[in-house]
Amino acid sequence: xxxxxxxxxxxxxxxxxxxxxxxxxxxxxxxxxxxxxxxxxxxxxxxxxxxxxxxxxxxxxxxxxxxxxxxxxxxxxxxxxxxxxxxxxxxxxxxxxxxxxxxxxxxxxxxx
Amino acid sequence: xxxxxxxxxxxxxxxxxxxxxxxxxxxxxxxxxxxxxxxxxxxxxxxxxxxxxxxxxxxxxxxxxxxxxxxxxxxxxxxxxxxxxxxxxxxxxxxxxxxxxxxxxxxxxxxx
DNA sequence: CAAATATACATAATTATTTTATGCATAAAA
DNA sequence: TTTTATGCATAAAATAATTATGTATATTTG
Lengths: 112, 112
Prior knowledge:
The structure is a homodimer of 112-residue chains. Chain A has 112 residues and is α+β, with helices and mostly antiparallel strands. The first copy, chain A, has one domain: Winged helix-like DNA-binding domain superfamily/Winged helix DNA-binding domain (Arc Repressor Mutant, subunit A, Orthogonal Bundle). Chain A has four helices and three strands, in the order αβααββα. Chain A has a three-stranded antiparallel β-sheet with strand order 1-3-2. In chain A, helix 1 (11-22) crosses helix 4. The radius of gyration of chain A is 16 Å and the shape is globular. The N and C termini of chain A lie far apart (34 Å). The A-B interface holds A 4-10, 13-14, 17-18, 21, 34, 37-39, 41-42, 91, 93-94, 96-98, 100-101, 103-105, 107, 110-112 and B 4-10, 13-14, 17-18, 21, 34, 37-39, 41-42, 91, 93-94, 96-98, 100-101, 103-105, 107, 110-112. Chain A binds a DNA duplex (30 and 30 nucleotides) through residues 1, 5, 7-9, 11, 26-29, 32, 45-48, 50-52, 54, 70-75.
């Protein structure tokens, strides 16, 4: 997903949140949306994205729906009920992560 | 380092920053300090810590110094000049990461 | 006093995630 | 007509962490 490897482990959170915002999206669209929002800061590779989408689907967090546009196939993903719940969890985990990291790197932000 | 895998990729940043704050530390001390600062939120495993310290030393970011306390050996690490520079980079990367993730998960925080 | 816990380091096997490379296919632009 | 863009997918390799061990000494607890 990029050189700075802090993004490792963040892909699921990103996918779930984008789907929460956009109702339904297809893989390529996700890569472009992330590129756009981050001004090219973060580029999601297909080798990371597609396996991740497949896994989320297998876990029942995403539903799939195909459609053909301009003679090209799109595979749309959308959140299931369970996926929406997991989105909430993942966002909370992100907040915890940020809070904890701030406590570690800015001693003034000590927790407690 | 913990269940929530957002921490993957953050260990180097944590180690470097702690050494920047504390001048010199030994491995076990680092695990305890992280546990303390994060109120037990983040537990660094030895299997992750020691290989990471060895790698940072091999890259010339850390210097090593042994000392014997209460008949037990401690291996103290401290930042080299290069290590201090890298600390600055890692902290900047963390800020970028947080900024980018906020842009992704809170659309109101759009970059640009 | 014996057993458990804490201190202190280290590595190997496994697992998980990502990068890099490759493959297929169609459409649009240069 | 070749390159770039759109669209999916997977396999090999790299990276990083967890889990499981191993060694050794010190301290605490029952």
